[in-house]
Amino acid sequence: MAAKPAAAPVLDWSWNHTPATSAALVAGGAYALAATGSVTGLPPSHALMVAGAGAAAQSLADLVQHRPAGHIVARCAAWLTAGGWTASALADHTPLTWGMTGWWAAGTVAGMTLARGLVRAEETARTERHQRRLQKWANKQAGEWHERLERLFRLEGHQVDGVRPWKGDVGYTVLVTMPSDTPELPADAVRKLAVDLRLPKGGGIQILDGDTYGQTLIRVTAVDVLAQQIDHPDTPPDTTVTSIYDGIPLGLKPDAEEARIAVVDDCVLVVGQTGSGKTNTVNVANAGALRTNNTIVMHIDVTGAGISLPWLHSWAAEGTAGVPLIDWTADTVEEAHILCDTVIAGIGARKTGHQDRLTEDDKLTVTHDLPEVLVVVDEIAELPPALLRKLDTIVNTGRAVRVRVLICGLRATQDVITAAMKKQSRGRVGMRVSDPEELSHLFPTGGARINPKSAPYKGCGFYSSPDADDVVSDPTAFKAYRITPKQIRALSVTYAERRPKLEDVFLDTEPGEYYASRWGRILPRLYKPTQLAPTTTPYTSGDTLYPPINPLTGIPITTATDPEDENAPAPRVVAAATQGAAWPEPTVGSDLLSTMLAAARTTPTPATTTDGDNATVIRADFGRVIQQAGTPEDRPSPVPQLLAEAHQHVVAAGGRMWSSDLAAAHGLDPRAFGTELNRLLRDVGVERPGVGTVRIGDESKSGYLAETLAEAIQCYRNTQ
After folding, report:
1. Virtual CA dihedral for 646, 647, 649, 652, nearest 10 degrees?
2. For 609-613, what is the mean pLDDT?
3. Res 510: pLDDT
């Protein structure tokens, strides 16, 4: 890999001095003035004039900052003392003698000590003044809230224990101890309190349980944080190295505190309708994970790698980043199978290969040399069932070895998200929705009390995630940071140098042999050869390895043997493209169509009757073989003709087809065709995913997937 040129040194012109160093600089200036002035004959009066001007300026500055009178006198005395020493040294021409130097050193130490003491005293006094103001404000609020609760709800015996303001003065929290006979506020308390406080639009009331029974927390939002656009922080302090153990920041909560999700032990589920800001939220999560130095991010997005391209641009097109920020991008279903097979094999390899690291805990500790693998999956509804089953395996088995999945979908229903994904995803993020039932389905606890109107703006949503004590909080509203492509490109350059690498144990597997040539397969589909920067050469200069394809299912075979095909072909190796030559066409996805058509094609055999022991008798009903006799070698294919032809049409249409279009391709009535084809699937126990709903473009209708029909064909063959 080509080394990235070192950044040029940047001069820092800021005056980052402490009070002590500032006093030392003033003393040094006085000594330099006395030394040079004694040689050049500078009059002593000049030193007194400078000291007087400094004392006057210091007094004016102190008065503006409302400093105590004693502090003003002390600072003025320091200036005049320095001026007096300088004038004495100039008058006697003795600044370089031991006596005058000793007095100067003593004065310097005294000035530094005085400056440090004055600043500390002022900070303490300032803190005390602030605390007194807060206490006065809290006491006033406590009295008002005690009266308000008594007036609105006729409470007696309650006690307001404290009022705590939030950061940014956007609201506050009231702690109330409820009386024993009235342990909770009534159901309409939120509305009554909001009206009584005359909260502005966007403000709100949230009532939570306290640490003990009988305690109630009333959270008052006085400023609508969610209505504001909150830019993603990208200043130098906001891009320092973090750890995945710190969680991933998503945005701000209504109290201006940061909303974070934990991804070390648990998977995360992100749901949001089109236009809700879900993609922006996913990119914010990418930024949080990539800011760390102990996390590897992989993407699965078969709709065009939309979540990956902004993070790859600096490396692949501009050449300003030396390494790809996203370690692996699966932009097709076939590449996603290779990625999942590699990750599943890596999970098993880590479990056996890192037993020596499991000493104090039964889970691996994430480090730069042993990073977490975070697989981000976008538009999960577009993935076929076989790929969903592999993701379920990763979700169920990867926790102990720090392999987790962040799943994104339009809805949290079972036709989009599998049961395993939802069960194992304790981190939940629900972006803006129009139906409250969707949030109730996403958040099993606390979701019934969510009001979508509490997060009405684009980029708003609700989230819940385990805290430091591994307790999942109730869903909380938040506003996601806004991250732009320009910010992503700048952050890519900053975060590139800290990217970790997968260890040899993870990659020393059969599917792992396809890892090194992943970009040789992927980049030709995402970019033209002329668009690629020289930084991609180290990742594409070697031979590109393509796994063989199962001719029936179209799934890449990444192991030595395919359980569904004992005569699987060997992998194909394509030599690296030379400079200026055309990129090789990948086998994955290019020759797949013709191969599947040839394998799935069955020749219709008319019903015949012959005499003899080896006679073959076939009775068919609407293309379905219901009875057959004869020796195995004389029997026709057990696959129903209607099923085989339907599979051919769906494959030719790109792998998914609506029921009406498929029936029209057969020239049959849609209702009769659908009834019979569904009966063929049920006979071998094959169910259509998503209750038979297939999405093509932006529209979803009843339809069929090529993989579903291929699974049924295999089941019929196994019954022969």
Report:
1. 170
2. 42
3. 92
